[in-house]
Design goal:
This protein is mainly beta. The chain contains no helices and 5 strands. About 0% of the residues lie in helices and about 40% in strands.
Length: about 70
């Protein structure tokens, strides 16, 4: 499960967010999630167990993001 939060002041933005899912063998799968609220919890079905996640791998968006494992 991923928890995504928009923490900027002001309006909440609505946009598609690509997430690259990389497994331990380096195989890469990209999923697109529609972000349309300040907080969002989603589950992604993947081919194999994720080893690494990369937000916006093609750098389409102008934002600062971080990933924290819980």
């Amino acid at each position: 499960t991923l928890e995504i939060q928009q923490v900027q002041k002001g309006s909440t933005f609505s946009f598609p967010l690509d997430i690259a899912i990389i497994d331990k063998n380096g195989n890469r799968e990209v999923k697109t999630v529609q972000i349309d609220s300040q907080q969002l919890k989603i589950s992604l079905n993947t081919q194999s167990e994720p080893f690494e996640l990369v937000l916006d791998p093609a750098t389409w968006l102008l934002f600062e993001g971080s990933i924290q494992k819980k």
